[in-house]
Design goal:
This protein is α+β, with helices and mostly antiparallel strands. It has three helices and five strands, in the order ββββαβαα. It has helices at 50-65, 74-82, 99-118, and strands at residues 7-8, 12-16, 22-30, 33-40, 68-71. α2 runs antiparallel to α3 (99-118). The relative contact order is 0.13.
Length: 120
């Protein structure tokens, strides 16, 4: 997994795999904020830290550009639950949330994403 390269455009971070599939993190920048909108990892590449690499790159780019992050997709919220030391990059109110508040927000996001999936 170390040899995976994260590339990005103005609205997506992505990793292209040798099998032709692609993992991605959609984002948008508005004013001085980076919104992490949705992540997707192909089923055959899940559980290998791919989504983490995508959010790591988003954090790196946000830092370089002086942006604050607003986690919208459930994976990005989960990432900041697991990486407490990176929460200073989160915009308010997320940066000041307790572990319990972030976990509640994570469950809300997950539930909303699941209900959108079931309505497709």
């Amino acid at each position: 997994m170390e040899d995976l390269v994260v590339r990005y455009t103005s609205d997506v971070f992505y990793i292209r795999f040798e099998d032709g599939s692609k993992a991605y993190l959609e984002y948008k920048i508005d004013n001085d904020k980076m919104y992490l909108i949705s992540t997707y990892t192909p089923p055959q590449h899940r559980g290998k830290g791919v989504a983490k690499k995508l959010v790591d790159k988003a954090v790196e780019v946000a830092r370089e550009r002086g942006l604050k992050i607003i986690p919208i997709c459930s994976y990005s919220v989960y990432y900041f639950i697991k990486n407490k030391d990176l929460r200073e990059i989160l915009d308010e109110p997320y940066g000041k949330m307790s572990d319990e508040e972030l976990e509640r927000y994570y469950r809300e996001r997950l539930e909303e994403e699941r209900s959108k999936e079931s309505n497709k």
